[in-house]
């Protein structure tokens, strides 16, 4: 997984790293599970994109909150 190597390189540079678990893939599901576990152990946040986007909006009063929620429901 090149995402794995890139995430570790970014950590070594002192960056906070988040990998969107539903935005990357591996040829075998077990490989993805192992890589995500290793990344978490190294200090990488591994989260689904929906979680990250809602965190960026921060509050339900954000002007894009309703539109984003509509898109999430539409594509769930």
How many distinct helices? 4
CATH topology: Rossmann fold
Distance between the termini: 26 Å
The CATH architecture category equals: 3-Layer(aba) Sandwich
Structure description:
This protein has a two-stranded parallel sheet with strand order 1-2. It has helices spanning 2-12, 29-42, 49-57, 65-74, and strands spanning 18-20, 45-47. It is built from 4 helices and 2 strands. The two termini are 26 Å apart. With 76 residues, the chain is mainly alpha-helical. 58% of the residues lie in helices and 8% in strands.
Please give the structural blueprint.
Elements: H1 2-12, E1 18-20, H2 29-42, E2 45-47, H3 49-57, H4 65-74
Parallel strand pairs: 1-2
List keywords for this structure.
76 residues; mainly alpha; Rossmann fold; 4 helices; 8% strand; flat
Give the gist of this structure.
The protein has 76 residues and is mainly α. It has helices spanning 2-12, 29-42, 49-57, 65-74; strands at residues 18-20, 45-47.
